[in-house]
Amino acid sequence: MKSNTLAILILAYCILVACTRTSPNAQLVQADSLMQKFPDSALRFLQKIRPEELNSLEDRAYHALLLTEVKDKNFIQQTEDSQIRIAVQYYDSIKDIPMQAKSYYYLGCIWRDKDKHPEALKEFFKAITYSKKANDNKLTGYIYII
């Protein structure tokens, strides 16, 4: 009887863990929604979020990607790639193709800002590969315009 109860509890726990999916931090989702129309507001919003306050690696990577993206949209020249590398490494590790495309695109933008054009092209080519796999025509278009 005890073994049956224990087996049921273990099975229930496994199902619960398998079905539980963490979602990105609500503040990050809100900042992402501001990105297209109000990039200046999104920048202020993201700068208020300290990476140490973010609990999961997923949230830290998403924050790093959004912060790099919003700085690019606000025409802030970026020469430091430590933030975007957090996103690149995370999205590569989980094989999230759409996010890999964006991460490599913004890594290329940083290399472009540093006037390191061969390195920028290398990252843009990676971004094109992933954006085509993800059928992200908008991002593919951005890359071709550069």
From TrEMBL:
Q: Does the keyword Transmembrane helix apply?
A: no
Gene3D superfamilies documented for this protein: Tetratricopeptide repeat domain
Q: Where is the signal peptide?
A: 1-26
The keyword Lyase appears for this protein: no
Judging by the UniProt lineage, the source's domain of life is Bacteria
The residue spans of each TPR repeat are 101-134
Q: Which InterPro entries match?
A: TPR-like_helical_dom_sf, TPR_rpt
Keyword annotations of the record = Signal, TPR repeat
Indicate what this protein is called per its UniProt record. Uncharacterized protein
